[in-house]
């Protein structure tokens, strides 16, 4: 059995499988949509419009950027 740096990474992935991901918020998109990154394995997810977590793809990042801009504008209008 050889050990490599790769096997260390899979150990933290195993922790995630066993105990769940340790997500930290990386960006607040709207009041109920955030982007998260797992501090163990680096997996990135975001809430979609139904409130479920999905893998944060580049396409979803772009969508969230547009959404965040729209939300900030809308929010500014309401508070003004
Ligand atoms: Zn993880």
Textual characterization of the structure:
- This protein is an alpha+beta fold and 80 residues long.
- It has one domain (5-79).
- It has 2 helices and 4 strands, in the order αββββα.
- The chain has a 4-stranded antiparallel β-sheet, with no helix packed on it.
- β2 (34-38) and β3 (44-47) form a beta hairpin.
- The protein is elongated, with a radius of gyration of 17 Å.
- The N and C termini lie far apart (65 Å).
- The mean pLDDT is 86.
- The site of zinc ion has 6 residues, from loops.
Mean pLDDT across every amino acid position: 86
Which radius of gyration do the C-alpha atoms yield? 17 Å
Q: How is the main sheet built?
A: 4 strands, antiparallel
| Secondary structure: helix percent | 40-55%
The ordered H/E elements are HEEEEH
Bound molecules: zinc ion
- Beginning-to-end CA distance, first to last residue: 65 Å
As residue ranges, the low-confidence spans are none
Instruction: Compute the number of helices.
Output: 2
The secondary structure category is alpha+beta
- Describe the global form: elongated
Number of domains: 1
Strand arrangement in the largest pleated sheet: 1-2-3-4
Brief overview, please?
The chain contains two helices and four strands.
Features:
80 residues; alpha+beta; four-stranded antiparallel sheet; 2 helices; elongated
Blueprint of the fold:
Elements (H helix, E strand, L loop, with lengths): L4 H15 L3 E6 L5 E5 L5 E4 L5 E3 L2 H22 L1
Antiparallel strand pairs: 1-2, 2-3, 3-4
Bound molecules: zinc ion.
């Amino acid at each position: 059995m050889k050990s490599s740096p790769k096997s260390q990474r899979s150990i933290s992935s195993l922790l995630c499988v066993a105990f769940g991901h340790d997500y930290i918020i990386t960006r607040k998109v709207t009041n109920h949509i955030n982007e998260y990154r797992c501090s163990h394995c680096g997996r990135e997810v975001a809430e979609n419009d139904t409130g479920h977590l999905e893998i944060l793809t580049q396409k979803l990042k772009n969508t969230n950027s547009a959404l965040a801009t729209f939300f900030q504008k809308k929010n500014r209008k309401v508070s003004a």
